[in-house]
């Protein structure tokens, strides 16, 4: 019994040394500025569809969103416990990977919205048929990520996968922009789906790995959250457009 008491007291003493003297304060200004900037930018991209980019109701929130984003960066460089420490985004590779993720998810979500409308409203597919028509895109993403990216990552730098992947995905999106009322699924939709899926699969794996690697242990959660935020922001803008 005394040995157990000594062990508990000793363990508590060791843990007490690891507990910081003061709890970090919640970065309320950073949270408000960061959230407001993304809301303003996404709103401007969404409303521009009906109002046009030159409308005051679009320019004002777009400029305001960029200004709020700049203010967010300024605040994060000054507060003691920033929501997003600037050291996390100063890494060129990590920032580039997050931008690539935002662009890929924006393109993917935009294609989902556009193709759903085309398949059901133009080609007359039922919801179930439209869902099945997306399966080749899903399979292509799995092929691009599992059969290509995962196998080549140990042998080549991430950029050698991400850049060609983005180009292939852009080619797929380019093919889908040529759809018209008379376009056939097998001839016009399927090739674009396959190219888009393979390209995105080659981007996702190395981009996520780069965005979350070589980060200090205390910043691991922040780097992961930044990756998720990049994808969510890109998806919101892609669906809005």
SSE inventory with pairings:
Elements: H1 2-18, H2 28-51, H3 56-76, H4 86-89, H5 92-122, H6 127-133, H7 135-152, H8 159-176, H9 185-212, H10 220-240
Helix pairs in contact: 2-3, 2-10, 5-8, 5-9, 5-10, 7-9, 8-9
Taken together, the total number of domains comes to: 2
Helical coverage, percent range: over 70%
Low-confidence stretches: 1-19
CATH architecture of the largest domain: Up-down Bundle
Compute the CA-based radius of gyration.
23 Å
The CATH class of the largest domain: Mainly Alpha
**Secondary-structure content class:** mainly alpha
Element-level helix/strand string: HHHHHHHHHH
Give the amount of beta strand, in percent.
under 5%
Helical run tally: 10
State the distance separating the first and last CA atoms: 68 Å
**In this structure, how is the largest beta sheet organized?**
none
* Mean pLDDT, all residues: 85
Task: Write a brief structural summary.
The chain is mostly helical and 241 residues long. It has ten helices and no strands.
Description:
- The chain is an all-alpha fold and 241 residues long.
- 78% of the residues lie in helices and 0% in strands.
- The chain contains ten helices and no strands.
- Helix 2 runs antiparallel to helix 3 and helix 5 runs parallel beside helix 8.
- The radius of gyration is 23 Å and the shape is flat.
- The protein starts with a helix and ends with a helix.
- The N terminus is likely disordered.
Key phrases:
single chain, 241 residues, mainly alpha, Growth Hormone, Chain: A, 78% helix
């Amino acid at each position: 019994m005394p040995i157990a008491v000594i062990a508990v007291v000793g363990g508590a003493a060791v843990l007490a040394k690891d507990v910081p003297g003061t709890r970090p304060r919640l970065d309320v200004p950073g949270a408000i500025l960061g959230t407001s900037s993304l809301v303003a930018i996404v709103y401007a991209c969404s409303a521009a569809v009906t109002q046009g980019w030159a409308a005051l109701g679009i320019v004002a929130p777009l400029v305001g969103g960029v200004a709020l984003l700049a203010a967010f960066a300024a605040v994060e460089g000054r507060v003691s416990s920033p929501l997003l420490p600037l050291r996390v985004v100063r890494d060129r590779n990590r920032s580039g990977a997050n931008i690539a993720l935002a662009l890929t998810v924006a393109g993917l979500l935009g294609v989902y919205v556009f193709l759903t409308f085309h398949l059901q409203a133009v080609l007359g597919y039922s919801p179930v048929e439209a869902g099945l028509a997306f399966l080749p895109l899903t399979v292509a993403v799995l092929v691009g990520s599992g059969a290509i990216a995962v196998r080549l990552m140990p042998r080549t730098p991430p950029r050698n996968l991400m850049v060609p992947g983005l180009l292939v995905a852009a080619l797929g999106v380019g093919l889908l922009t040529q759809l018209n009322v008379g376009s056939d699924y097998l001839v016009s939709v399927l090739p674009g789906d396959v190219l888009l899926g393979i390209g995105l699969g080659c981007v996702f794996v190395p981009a996520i790995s780069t965005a979350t690697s070589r980060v200090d242990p205390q910043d691991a959660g922040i780097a992961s959250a930044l990756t998720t935020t990049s994808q969510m922001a890109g998806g919101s803008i892609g669906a809005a457009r």
